[in-house]
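User: For my dataset I need records formatted as: sequence, then structure tokens, nothing else. Please produce one.
Assistant:
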Amino acid sequence: MSKNMKIALLCPASFPATQFGGIVFLAVDIAREISELGHDVKIYTTDLDFSNGPTKFNKKLPRIEKIEKFKIARSHTWFCIKLFFFNPGMYNQLIRDKPDIIHTIGLRSFQSIIAWAVSKKYHIPLVVSDQGGLTTHPFLKESSPFFRLIFKVQNIFIKQILKQASGISAANEYEAKIFSDIYKKSKSTIIRNGVNLKSLISQKNFKKTYNINSKFILFVGRFSKSKGIDDLINAIQIIKNELKSRKVSVVIMGVDFGYQNEMFSLIEKHDLSNQIIVIKNPPREDVISAYGESEFLVMPSKWELSPLVPLESFAFKRTVISTNTHGIPYTVQDKKNGILIEPENPVELSNAIIKLLDNPSLCDSLGMEGYDFVQKECNSVSMAENHLKLYQKILKINRS
């Protein structure tokens, strides 16, 4: 087998749309680390730039852009249905480049359908990852009939994609079970998500930038119902007097995914505008500096598969309060590197916040365990090396 592989990574969004979430960073970190080892890696994606919202596309972005030793190939998005971005130009890009292997990240996407189609027609091995797609979305029943229909249509394609796949990369055992529930013959390789420790450095003074004169608790994520922001606000309402006397604020950083107006209404209803600082569309460097200056992170999600935000917090030796639901316990381990509570339980959340504020030594020890976790296991180098081993194994089987 040739030492140099031609690897295609497909995903719905990439730079500069960092606010899109974990998919962006996973693809970039895999591309960066594997290209450093001498392989030809290209990310195929849309022209989402996120400058004015989660569905804004920019034809002015370079079609081909070289970043360090890998490339990003963008094709224009004709239209979108929620986060399903239709960019058919990607198909011809892939055919022209003839990669040795295709890895698609984000299963419920048009990009994964393209990956499947090219893999099937041109007999190119296919690897799939999900990273928090809609496979177990708890709010499906509350969605419109049209959205539920789209979901069912996607399921048809997902089964075909998994049938075609030569390999499946699952971030944890919970995600692996989802794959096997969808397609019984699927076999997953557990490859833990990792964060780029070299990039988690900021020269900014966060408190000075945002004129914050107190300690603060941090939330980072989409302004979405699934992130449990309502539970966080209700928890702060319960302990607002205690937080005020301790001079502790709450910083909520993120991008609107449909819940922003409700969030501000709830903050106003509870008269928390002086205690909750909301930072919309924050630059990446500001998010990084916020981790380092926070007391700890709160992630009260109602649903997550394999979140990266806790890993980023761990990289700064900051512990995490989260919920014991879905895939979260495979990242945040109760009483080891964080505290897990029941989802949608503001009282339990408020108690956990006070517990950490009352016990700085506990906060520090949990944060140090989280730091060791990302240093040893959940970092981008380990993640990329494990994916490279998977690619090589698949190509070896394919060629023999």
